[in-house]
Amino acid sequence: ETGVTQTPRHLVMGMTNKKSLKCEQHLGHNAMYWYKQSAKKPLELMFVYNFKEQTENNSVPSRFSPECPNSSHLFLHLHTLQPEDSALYLCASSQVLNRDSSGELFFGEGSRLTVL
Amino acid sequence: AQSVAQPEDQVNVAEGNPLTVKCTYSVSGNPYLFWYVQYPNRGLQFLLKYITGDNLVKGSYGFEAEFNKSQTSFHLKKPSALVSDSALYFCAVRGSNDYKLSFGAGTTVT
Questions:
Q1: Which of A9, B16, B25, B26 is deepest in the core (most CB within 10 A)?
Q2: Are strands A53-57 and A111-115 parallel, antiparallel or unpaired?
């Protein structure tokens, strides 16, 4: 148990569906992240939120829409996805990264997404 | 720009033998270095980190890593590998002047 909980663990959706991934952290952190992990590819940082404000959007297509209502919750809204979006989506949290924080990330177990 | 290289996609080791997973990095400023492990269909688990101080860092599950500033390396080591150590290992780095963590491509240990 890492203190970061992701739901659902598995999701299958069609290209016209709308679904959401949820992440909740119980570590008192102020930064939250979405990463995409595809087979045979490096981890891709998608979004970063610090104190509920989005500070990084790594050129992610608009069919992925993040939402961070507070420092403990992070959502990834999905709509009109493509089969190549099938991947493991990882949520992580940390203290806000600055010169005084070491900044290790704590990851959830991931949401395995399959787009048909 | 910062970057991490894990030169080996795969490392095979017999149980009981020493295990080494290699990592080199490039950052501006002082490096903050991390190792994570990922078991199948699971998230990444933090193993250990180097921020400052002793170059040999000890972490979870008997792992340790050695920071070498001159070679810009942070290799992960375990004196005696177990079958249960089979997993995907990621090295990560950020510079003291940066606010993002950069991950290597990962090394599969079998």
A1: B25
A2: unpaired
Amino acid making up residue A104: E
For residues A49 and B75, give the distance between their C-alpha atoms in angstroms, rounded to a whole number: 31
Q: Whole-angstrom Cα distance, residue A21 to residue A11?
A: 9
Taking CA–CA distances from B35, the nearest residue in chain A reads A104
Q: Report the alpha-carbon distance of residue A35 to residue A93 in Å, rounded.
A: 11
Apex B13 CA angle, B8 and B41, nearest 5: 70
Those residues with Cβ within 8 angstroms of residue A15's Cβ, 6 or more apart along the chain or in another chain: A80, A81, A82, A83, A115, A116
Q: Count of residues for chain A? A: 116
Q: How far apart are CA A9 and CA A110, in angstroms?
A: 6
Tokens of B27: 């950052």
Cα-based angle B93, B43, B100 (whole degrees, multiple of 5)? 25
Inter-chain contact A97–B42, Cβ cutoff 8 Å?
Answer: no
| Residue B42 to residue A109, Cβ atoms within 8 A | yes
pLDDT tens-place string over residues B22-39: 999 999 888 999 999 999
